[in-house]
Amino acid sequence: MKKNRFKKVILGVMVVFILLVAITGGAISDRLFGIRPLQVNKLLTEESVVTTVAEDVSPSVVTVSMQTSPRRILQFNPFSGFTSRIQGGTPQDIGSGFIVSKDGLIVTNKHVVSDATAKYKVITKDDKEYEVTTISRDPANDIAILKINPSTGSGLRAAELGDSSALRVGQFVIAIGTALGEFRHTVTTGVISGLGRGITAGSPYEGYAEKLDDIIQTDAAINLGNSGGPLLNSLGQVIGVNVAVAEGANNIGFALPVNILKEALSQFNANGGFSKKAYLGVEYQMITQANAILNSVPPGAYVVGVVAGSPAEKAGIKDGDIITKIDGNEINEKNGGLSKIIAEKKAGDRVEVEIWRDGETQKLQITLSESNQ
């Protein structure tokens, strides 16, 4: 009898001990080793996501290489006088891209392949090189579609395109590209820092300037050479095309939403190319509703520059004007801003542009011209 009672006591002590270990194990391991079980699981999960996406998508990511004709450049040195050197002639990695079809269609940024006189190649993850035979540049967005002719059985793998309409700030993202034009297939991670951003693209000195709206902002490291590469979600789907980085800032990069790319691809596949972009010829900054209220002005596109000889100049638009409507459609950040409305027009279209100047509203009739981009 005593023996059975002793066994029950021992069994009870063991049960209590096991319960105490289960309850306090996390706290003890935290204090002794600085490890939290939940943090370990989170770390392992995030790490496995990144490695899986990198392994799955990297074969679809390419490096874009450019070769220009060699030319002699003169340089002056106050100690040795004039000297010369040869510039160009050798291939140079300049950007990134990704495969969107097995038969050889590749997406990159338009500014990556802006030199119409250069020859371009793409290099895949397994170091295979392909000559770019055709370049189609989207005049409405910083997108270009490259065509290569892969051999049968080349094994090109197209990246999966996701949906950028449901993105959320704080969402985990992964970028892959040729960082600094030197380090191929660099993988970086971060989050979506903001949505609906606006950045200025183009150059007023070259006769055009536009503002890209609805841009994704991320803190994933995006450097020169990453342009044209994919921004991915945790499923390995492309949600954006890396396009720019803020100068003089840390961890501020930008990407075009993938839904813009999908629209461009739809147009490309339907027409075999892109139609010329309608052109207004203004450089501007968007005035939000909040800023409009603070400054007692209407929301719209505040003109900071007018291109000489452009339809805008011919119609009388001036610096300081605020473009508020086009064909009765209000211009605001919610509907994509001025660039989106103009992108929906065709060269030769006659539009009614409503501007606000010195407290008065004016309506101008403007015929849009054809962009040279």
UniProtKB/TrEMBL annotation:
Start and end of every PDZ domain? 257-359
A Pfam cross-reference name: Trypsin_2
Q: Which residues form a coiled coil?
A: none
| Gene Ontology process terms (BP) | proteolysis
Give the keywords, sorted.
Hydrolase, Protease
Query: Signal sequence: where?
Result: none
Superkingdom, according to UniProt? Answer: Bacteria
| Annotated family | Belongs to the peptidase S1C family.
Q: What is this protein called?
A: PDZ domain-containing protein
- Write the lineage as a comma-separated list: Bacteria, Candidatus Woeseibacteriota
